[in-house]
Amino acid sequence: MTNLENINWSSLPFGYMKADYNVRCTYKDGKWGEIEVSESEYINIHIAATCLHYGQEIFEGLKAFRGKDGKIRIFRPEANAQRLINSANGIKMAPMPQELFVEMVKKVVKLNERFIPPYESGSSLYIRPVEIGTSAQVGVKPAQEYTVIMFVTPVGPYFPDGFKPTKVAIYREYDRAAPLGTGKWKVGGNYACGMRATERAHENGFSAVLFLDPKEKLYLDECGPANFFAIKGNTYITPKSESILPSITNMSLQQIAKDMGLNVERRPIPVEELAEVDEAAECGTAAVCTPLSHIYDFDNDKDYLISKDGQAGPVVTELYKRLQGIQKGDLPDTHNWVTVLD
Ligand code: PLP
Ligand code: COI
Predict the structure, then answer these.
(1) Using a 6 Å CB cutoff, which residues line ligand 1?
(2) Is this prediction's pTM over 0.90?
(3) Are 240 and 268 a contacting pair, CB within 8 Å?
(4) What pLDDT, in 10s, does the model give residues 304-323?
(5) Of 195, 213, 250, 251, whose Cβ has the fewest other Cβ atoms within 10 Å?
């Protein structure tokens, strides 16, 4: 059993720590079975499983938070359930019903309650559901059997500097998804596709890649692990594209922006428009809302300076505070986003 006595909850990396249990559920003979609880970190699968050969693998990411009041809050699990259904349909896997997904999420959080970081730490419990095609198939066809596994791990910020502005890079010679491919689903292959670019960005001293639309390379798409948004005057702008993941954090921030009286525009954003924005950030479950300082276009040797003083701008800061406030229970959950565990 993982010993938590000497853990410094405030300085956790975004990484894996063995929790006590994971939960699993399999789809066989056209139906989902019972939720199983496991202590093993391993799975035993067929050597011809479709997840190994033909990429039938999709996943999700969501978080649970411990509030000042001691309560445990899970942020928008229904939305992740729906996105897993969309991803499953996208690559011909068995969709898991929303209620079953949410029940599994609640169960895995409850079983691993001692791994939920304390309120003051600023850390949270990351929940990682993954679905794989498990039955044997040598011809290219969908599997007949599927397994959903959910594990949890306590995490700190995805980008080590947390809410400090970070730099992202634009390169035109890489894509993370094809124009009408799997970019809008949370398919593992998208991340494999983005790895060469992301490793190059890291080597160049950038925290992530800001991918462009794969068809014309004229518009902003999204970052490797997160969506992109910018603040221009009184408007929140975020890319509209067929090849980006519909981020639940981004949708939530758009609503919060409206609550704050901002206009919200979802539309193609030309790269050059970066010269006119006041603030920018990447957003996602892991990234939360990470402000951007510079966006460097390598092909044109152009540095878009977003934060002149190296600090997060006022609007991104307020959006971040409100989002975290709702997630942790410090602010009222006016949009019914939070599931409180009983
Ligand atoms: N875009 C990509 C490629 C991601 O991997 C993620 C993370 O899940 C996001 C965006 C953000 O989505 P969400 O806010 O639902 O976590
Ligand atoms: C998330 O934010 O949940 C993600 O999946 C992003 C990344 C860790 C792949």
Answers:
(1) 61, 222, 225-227, 245, 247-250, 284-285
(2) yes
(3) yes
(4) 999 989 899 999 999 999 99
(5) 195
